User: Fold this.
Amino acid sequence: MERTIVVGDVHGCRAELEALTKACGFGPGQRLVLVGDIVAKGPDSAGVMAFVRAQGALGVLGNHDAHVLRAREALSGKPEHRQVVETLSEEDLAYLQALPLYLDLGPEAPGDAPTFVVHAGAVPGIPIPQQDREHLLTLRSIRDDGLPTKKLKGKPWASLWQGPERLVFGHDAMRGLQQYPFAVGLDTGCVYGGALTALILPERRLVSVRAERAYVPL
Assistant:
């Protein structure tokens, strides 16, 4: 696998994204991949999009990215998402529109199962291409009765994921950094005053930078 930097939920925090890519030594010939929630909540969604597109970054759709796209189409939705639409260019919106629900990064080493990026989660036992869209965008837990939920109720879905695919995800700032045998969660709450975290592949090294401040309450 070529050197790949997978970044957690950016949420419009351009300064932290630039600082993190620098700390990771990101440069030509490397892949920059975003786990979704690229825009919204933070101070500079348009700046993030300009940086992301300039770097040729890959990514997956996050639930807040989807909210922004719906606000654009329906001319409705939460004010925070409508405001983001007003700051983005048509090229930015086209980039968000083209984001897939999951991304296959390939194996980290010959003979390995592939590593996938998803935004929120995947229900254990179901192949990634067969996962429900809503679970890919909002899943957080598996309840004690075995049902998936977007709430913090039951066990983290990632603690139950047995592979063979390795998954990298975001979305769950309340639980913070999550590390399990077959899944790594990178949402460390940058927009809430936490940190922005990246996983560097194939070396599987974690790098974080602190948020400049809390932009919204958690």
The chain is about 30% helix and 25% strand. The two ends are 36 Å apart (CA to CA). The helical segments are 14-23, 45-54, 63-74, 79-87, 90-98, 133-138, 157-160. Residues 63-74 form the longest helix (12 residues).
